[in-house]
Design brief:
Structural class: alpha+beta
Order of helices and strands: EHEHEHHHEEEEEEHEHEEHH
Radius of gyration: 19 Å
CATH superfamily of the largest domain: ATP-grasp fold, B domain
Number of strands: 12
Number of domains: 3
CATH class of the largest domain: Alpha Beta
Strand content: 15-25%
Number of helices: 9
CATH topology of the largest domain: D-amino Acid Aminotransferase, Chain A, domain 1
Helix content: 25-40%
Distance between the termini: 23 Å
Largest sheet: 5 strands, antiparallel
Strand order of the largest sheet: 10-9-8-11-12
Length: 301
């Protein structure tokens, strides 16, 4: 029987989200027959190394979200320790977390992305409004917001998160989609709707903040294309294990178009999170999903 240490918490803005993922994953892993050690992570890397070694894991289930947990930092530690871990390796994790770098890779690979540019605080942007402002290396839509015509705010001088640069992208109208990838296949596409009009942090985590439609009600060709783009984005970044790709489906014009927003290389992992929900629709239970993730864990070392 494998011993699995579950990393959760962390020092990012997504600490509470990670704690929820870690607790849910721990429960599902125990149901799947593993010996589980939940490990709440803080900011001290020395404590992290000591606690991981003391738990003597065969595999680490990485349920950390955000900076330091899914950006290659923890992955590097686990590589040095020689312990297999779930989700992507160091390079893919760092690439996926850096939104500007990831969109550059997508564009080079022919994956459609929104027009955008990196802007330094205090500078202007050539992207007309409405546009989306987002930090370069946060997840869960933390700090993301839309600036519309007539909005007096100037986020290029004073945005609500700690950063010197920001990514500004054109706002893509239409519908919010997300697609799950498991290994070398796309599991399916889900549509997200929200009365807030935008799938921001509050819409993701507030009770009743969003509604999910699985499978997404799209024409078959467009549904298949969304799956193809998600798998391609996963492959371009070099992801392994499970990932989730967020897309916009612009059906407001004469011809619909799909645009890839970003890849979440370490998506939420509660039984009601998006990837487990998509997996469940295909017949994969939550314990079966986390078991597969542990059995396919790897180490870059």
């Amino acid at each position: 029987m494998k011993r699995v240490t579950v990393l959760m918490g962390g020092a990012s803005a997504e600490r509470e989200v990670s704690l929820n993922s870690g607790k849910a994953a721990s429960k599902a892993l125990a149901e799947a027959g593993f010996t589980v050690t939940p490990l709440e992570v803080g900011r001290d890397p020395a404590d992290l190394v000591r606690d991981i070694v003391a738990s003597s894991p065969d595999v680490v289930f990485n349920a950390l979200h955000g900076r330091f947990g899914e950006d290659g930092c923890v992955q590097g530690v686990l590589n040095l320790l020689g312990i297999p871990y779930t989700h992507s390796g160091l390079l893919a994790s760092a690439a996926a977390m850096d939104k500007a770098f990831a969109r550059h890779l997508f564009a080079q690979a022919g994956i459609p992305v929104a027009k955008g540019e990196v802007v330094r605080k205090g500078d202007g942007t050539s992207i007309p409004r409405p546009h989306v402002v987002k930090p370069l290396n946060e997840g869960s839509s933390f700090g993301v917001y839309i600036l519309k015509d007539g909005d007096p705010r100037d986020p290029l001088k004073d945005w609500p998160f700690e950063a010197d640069v920001v990514l500004v992208e054109e706002f893509i109208p239409g519908r919010e989609l997300t697609a799950a990838v498991m290994g070398d296949r796309a599991l399916g596409v889900l549509e997200i709707t929200s009365d807030r009009g935008f799938y921001d942090y509050e819409a993701k985590y507030a009770p009743g903040g969003s509604r999910h439609i699985m499978p997404a009600p799209l024409p078959k060709d467009d549904y298949d294309e969304a799956c193809r783009l998600a798998l391609r984005a996963h492959q371009v970044l070099g992801c392994r294990g499970v990932s989730r790709t967020d897309l916009r489906y612009d059906d407001t014009g004469a011809k619909p178009r799909l645009v890839v927003l970003e890849v979440n290389n370490q998506p939420g992992m509660t039984a009601t999170s998006l990837v487990p929900e998509i997996a469940a629709y295909t017949g994969i239970s939550f314990p079966e999903l986390v078991r597969w993730m542990v059995e396919n864990a790897a180490c870059d070392a």
